[in-house]
Amino acid sequence: MASAQRRSAAAKRIEELASEPTTAKALAKLIYYSAAMIVTPLVTYNLSMTRFVPYLYEKYGTEFLENPTTCSGLFAILSVQVVLVMYVISALREDGSSPAMKRE
After folding, report:
1. CA separation for the pair 14, 4 (Å, rounded)
2. CA distance 29 to 103
3. Cα separation, 104 vs 68, whole angstroms
4. How far, in Å, CA of 85 to CA of 10, rounded?
5. Which of 47, 68, 98, 104 could cross-link with 22 by S-S, CB 3.0 to 4.6 Å?
6. How far apart are CA 88 and CA 71, in angstroms?
7. Nearest to 49 by CA among 70, 63, 78, 64
8. Is 29 helix (H, G, I), strand (E, B) or coil?
9. Is the dihedral of CA 25, 26, 29, 30 positive or negative?
10. What is the DSSP string of 52-68?
11. Can you give the pLDDT of all 104 residues of the chain as single tens digits?
12. CA–CA separation, 22 and 32 (whole Å)
């Protein structure tokens, strides 16, 4: 019974935090960038594997581009890094007017 009360108290606290505008905005941003970190490398890998790397191999013909898997994997890794940099930049641009910042 005590554990059920603790769970309900924790659930109430989470609901309170999520109802605050700044917290809701931060959660939405976290979900958005998490989805982008999943979708972006998959799309980048598939597009570069089927279109971009074969085009580069035909044009330049280097040994590095013979294996499209390696090159496409590198492009996917770079796309994740771009999403991470965008997340950090958006986090730094926030005005810092959250209640946690005001308490300090």
Report:
1. 15
2. 23
3. 52
4. 33
5. 98
6. 26
7. 70
8. helix
9. negative
10. IHHHHHHHH--GGGTSH
11. 555 566 677 777 777 766 777 777 888 888 999 999 999 999 999 998 888 888 887 888 777 677 788 888 999 999 999 999 999 998 888 766 555 555 54
12. 15
Q: What pLDDT, on the 0 to 100 scale, is given for residue 37? A: 93
Give residue for tokens 């771009």. Answer: 82
Sequence ranges of the domains in the chain: 21-97
pLDDT of residue 70: 86
Supply the pLDDT for residue 33: 93
Q: In this structure, what token pair is assigned to residue 67?
A: 């294996």
Tokens matching residue 62: 């280097």
pLDDT for position 86? 94
